[in-house]
Design brief:
Length: 895
């Protein structure tokens, strides 16, 4: 039984039992507590928890899943995979244990006709009810019902969330596949008993304190492994010999000199290629954290196993194409995103291939040196990671394969050191030296008042006259850190030209002169408020930018550095290629939408763990104390940050990207302006928007004219649209006249409104198509006079200009309706190309006429491609001047 039939039969069975067939969800879950979709129930989690009302009481899905916990077993056992498909049926407060078990048993033994005697069941040890159902209702012999412990037969989606006892169904491949141990039974690690289906009786919600809270409404969540079931139904004993894997493994073999398809590396490559292809198609890109890291690990692991197979050149893209071809019917998104899938894999594979060889040389050298202690030093593991791009898991794996261990602590230390360096790298060297020279050991952390105040009384704690540095007990001055520059201002009437922060938290005011300042003296410290306001706008804008980049480019975007000043902001981030202009425009649009939203910027103190749980993005290279400051822009961005920010996004006024460039391999830099600064850019903005709007307007007008010329009814525009249109035109003029009031109005009114015009355009285009279609079929009757009789067959051969295929079809339909028996040959010319349609009525097919054959004659003349069946063939060609000749040839062939 083909895997496609297995999927279908599953869905159809449950549809027959009243379940709604629903689409599976993306591998990227909406649930923030889970990294990747690991089970079919995930999309229903809020329903199980009672937070959402179900639209259907029962449902069934095929869900693509990804689990990393078994990655090291992939290829070593018959059954482990990272990416797999789960067949599931769900009840939301509808049926429960008895029915769930009954359905599963009926479908397996009747729907899929599995031999009853090969099946056994396991239940949670305390679940007498489930035990009794198997024994008394299903009549499964008691020696094939097992009670297993919580680890095996109590399922939960994660540390918290819906959970409950479960019952698993196992297939017995026979003792010869087993470990032979006397206690070998379902749940054993060997390959004899294969867990095929897990039925979870969702009953509880586990809360953060690990209490099991009974749910008001109980549910059913089941999951059957498609690949596993396929292995049984296709008479093989492992996933990799099913139709889901064979084409991939065959393809991989063509890159090698090997014959044996069962080699572990081949299986690993096949599994990993399925995983990477589907991850990328769901919008994940290789990165150093989270999902991006999962993807990177998978790709790089596959590259290495390719090398172990003796493959010398990049090969993953070809395999990914195979995955797309095999799976696109079930997951159309694969075909849509094939190009980006190939691009991403190619970049990542190329990148790693360039360093893998050198990395392995280093690895081998170090293993030679450490023959005795069998330890890979932490420094080496770090170098492999940092210089050669080896994910630490890969290093560990290679080490283990050779009987080595990684010095994990040493590795951690080296990683910490790098973070420290990255953190300090933000502050210019001469400033750092200045700070390093001072003896601050006796000074306490300075109290920073600048989140609330611009000005304050303070006491001088210490003066370093040579460095012209003053330390206060408390201060509104922000010391340069986290990318944000230090404040300037006044201490009494002495200018503060910069403010620094020592690693121990002492704020250092750099002053023009120290004359007139004395230790212990009371002073007034005041920052330059307008400068700080500009800095604040840029800082909050940086957060918006960070989030917008992740939305537009993907989760792999992480900050690798930043500068937040009064003049501009700079944001460095991980991304593997230059941004496209439309991506930059989209980022700008998102940020500006957030500004327009005038959302309150919330700041709170949280424990680090709490903050991460809230979904806060931790910045690379930042170091956090126990309590952290969480900056929350509701429904948009949550980040840890010690900097100063505006109170509402509205204060940012405006955001504009100035440039986007490469900073290094895989690192990009954006420079942008916000706040008052950006207002200067308003005109610039208005001009580019104007160009865009004008273009759209032109297109819109042209479409309107075309429609009128076709005799279509007037555009059915609402009054508001008409008014807005007129206003738009007058405002567009304001840009040329630099009439600032109207420019602002124009921007406020039409920023983001391109879509509104675009919608109209799409609608107009459709209306025009419809009119043309109607006209085409209406005109068709007038062609009756042009119908010829050739060998007693009615034939219309006709050439058009600019008729779409849909229009040709409409003509043919009308003629077929009226003539009943006929051959219709239609062609339509466009500049530099043509299309054609040939149809033959049924009675004539019986007499031996064929649209397909006529199409061959047609394409021989016009050069091009065509295809179809006896009744209808369509195609296209490049040379419209040959249409007449082609039509004549076709007619001649009939005579
Ligand atoms: N959620 C359960 C599992 O993943 C059943 O689908 O095993």
């Amino acid at each position: 039984m083909k895997s496609s039939e297995i999927r279908n039969r599953f869905l159809k069975y449950f549809e027959g039992k009243g379940h709604k067939i629903l689409p599976g969800s993306s591998l990227v879950p909406t649930d923030p507590t889970v990294l990747l979709t690991l089970a079919g129930m995930l999309q229903f989690k809020p329903i199980f928890l009672g937070e959402e009302k179900p639209q259907y009481k029962t449902a069934t899905t095929v869900q693509k899943c990804l689990r990393m916990n078994d990655i090291e077993n992939v290829g070593k056992t018959a059954r482990h995979l990272t990416f797999f498909e789960m067949l599931g049926n769900f009840s939301f407060g509808d049926y429960f244990k008895k029915e769930a078990i009954g359905f599963a048993w009926e479908l397996l033994t009747e729907g899929y006709a599995l031999p009853r005697e090969k099946l056994s069941a396991a239940v949670f040890e305390k679940d007498d009810e489930a035990y009794a159902i198997w024994k008394d209702i299903i009549k499964l012999p008691e020696n094939r019902i097992f009670r297993l412990d919580e680890e095996n037969n109590f399922w939960s989606v994660g540390p918290t969330g819906p959970c409950g006892p479960c019952s698993e169904i196992y297939y017995d491949f026979g003792p010869e596949k087993g470990c032979g141990k006397p206690n070998c039974r379902p749940g054993c690690d060997c390959d004899r008993f294969l867990e095929v289906w897990n039925l979870v009786f969702i009953q509880y919600n586990r809360n953060e304190k690990e209490d099991l809270i009974p749910l008001k409404v109980r549910g059913i969540d089941t999951g059957m492994g498609l690949e596993r079931l396929a292995s049984i139904l296709q008479g093989v004993d492992n996933n990799f010999e099913t139709d889901l894997f064979v084409p991939l493994i065959k393809k991989t073999l063509t890159f090698t000199k090997l014959q044996d398809p069962s080699k572990a590396s081949l299986r690993i490559v096949a599994d990993h290629t399925r995983a990477m292809t589907n991850l990328i198609s769901d919008g994940i890109y290789p990165g150093n954290t989270g999902r991006g890291y999962v993807l990177r690990r998978i790709i790089r692991r596959a590259v290495r196993h390719g090398k172990l197979l003796g493959i010398q050149k990049p090969f993953l893209v070809d395999l990914a194409k195979e995955v797309v071809a095999e799976m696109k019917d079930v997951y159309p998104v694969l075909a849509k995103r094939e190009k980006i899938i190939c691009e991403v894999i190619q970049t990542e594979e190329d990148n790693f291939l360039t360093t893998l060889k050198q990395g392995m040389e280093l690895f081998n050298k170090i293993m030679e040196q450490h023959k005795a202690d069998k330890i890979i030093p932490g420094e080496t593991a770090f170098k492999l990671h940092d210089t050669f791009g080896f994910p630490i898991e890969l290093t560990r794996e290679i080490a283990e394969e050779n009987g080595f261990k990684v010095d994990e602590q040493g590795f951690e230390k080296a990683m910490e050191g790098q973070k420290e360096r990255a953190r300090e790298a933000g502050i210019p060297a001469e400033k750092k030296e200045k700070v390093a020279k001072l003896d601050l050991s006796k000074l306490k952390t300075t109290k920073f008042l600048g989140y609330e105040k611009d000005s304050s009384d303070a006491k001088i704690i210490k003066i370093f006259p040579e460095e012209k540095i003053v330390v206060l007990d408390k201060t509104p001055f922000y010391g340069e850190s986290g990318g944000q520059v230090g404040d300037t201002g006044l201490i009494n009437d002495i200018r503060v030209t910069d403010t620094l922060l020592s690693p121990s938290g002492v704020i250092l005011h750099v002053v023009e002169k120290v004359d007139g300042l004395k230790e212990k003296a009371k002073v007034k410290a005041t920052i330059d408020g307008s400068r700080r306001a500009a800095i604040k706008a840029h800082h909050t804008a940086t957060h918006l930018l960070h989030k917008a980049l992740r939305e537009v480019l993907g989760d792999h975007v992480t900050q690798s550095g930043s500068y937040v000043g009064p003049d501009k902001l700079r944001f460095d981030f991980k991304h593997f290629q230059a941004m496209k202009p439309e991506e930059i425009a989209k980022v700008e649009r998102i940020v500006n939408e957030q500004i327009k939203r005038k959302c309150k910027v919330d700041v709170s103190q949280k424990s680090y763990d709490e903050a991460i749980k809230m979904g806060a993005m931790a910045l690379f290279g930042e170091k956090y104390g126990d309590k952290v400051r969480v900056l929350d822009i509701k429904d948009f961005s949550t980040e840890l940050c010690g900097g100063t920010h505006v109170g509402s996004t509205g204060e940012i006024l405006f955001f504009k990207v100035l440039s986007e460039s490469a900073l290094g391999a895989g690192v990009r830099r954006i420079e942008a302006v916000a706040g008052q600064k950006a207002k200067v850019n308003v005109l610039y903005q208005a001009k580019s928007l104007k160009a865009e709007v004008e273009n759209l307007l032109k297109k819109y007008r042209a479409l309107q004219a075309e429609k009128e010329s076709l005799g279509g009814k007037q555009f059915n525009e609402t009054g508001i649209f008409q008014i807005e249109l007129t206003e738009l035109e007058s405002l567009v003029n304001a840009v040329d006249n630099q009439d600032s009031v109207n420019v602002k109005k124009f921007l406020d009114h039409f920023r983001g409104r391109e879509e509104w015009l675009e919608e109209r355009i799409v609608k107009s285009e459709k209306e025009i198509r419809d009119i043309k279609l109607k006209q085409a079929s209406g005109d068709a009757s007038s062609y009756l006079s042009e119908v010829k009789e050739i060998a007693e067959v009615k034939v219309l051969a006709k050439e058009f200009e600019g008729h779409s295929m849909q229009m040709l079809r409409a003509v043919s339909d009308t003629l077929q309706n009226q003539l009943k028996s006929c051959i219709v040959v239609l062609a339509s010319a466009f500049p530099g190309r043509l299309i054609f349609l040939i149809t033959v009525t049924k009675d004539l097919i019986e007499k031996g006429y064929s649209a397909k054959k006529l199409a061959d004659i047609f394409t021989q003349v016009v050069g091009g491609k065509g295809g179809g069946k006896e009744a209808k063939a369509e195609g296209g060609g490049k040379d419209p001047s040959k249409i007449r000749e082609a039509l004549e040839k076709v007619c001649a062939s009939l005579g």
